[in-house]
Design goal:
Length: about 70
């Protein structure tokens, strides 16, 4: 089934987290994560960009909290 224009599609784990920065991702891509307690959360990419500039995705992990 092909996702519609306004639907969110799960892509899966991103393997290149240490090479990819926030600015490398296309604007329509949502960034999220799962905590050890299994809670899901979404990252406001514009707020992350404001706080950490062009951070590499892998460097965001220790900065995030459940």
């Amino acid at each position: 089934m092909k996702a519609g224009r306004d639907e969110i599609t799960y892509v899966g784990p991103f393997d290149a987290t240490m090479e990819t920065s926030l600015d490398d991702l296309q604007e329509f891509i949502a960034i999220g994560g799962v905590c050890r307690c299994e809670r899901e959360g979404w990252i406001d990419r514009y707020e992350a960009r404001r706080k950490w500039r062009d951070a590499v995705l892998g460097s965001l992990q220790p900065r995030l909290r459940c």
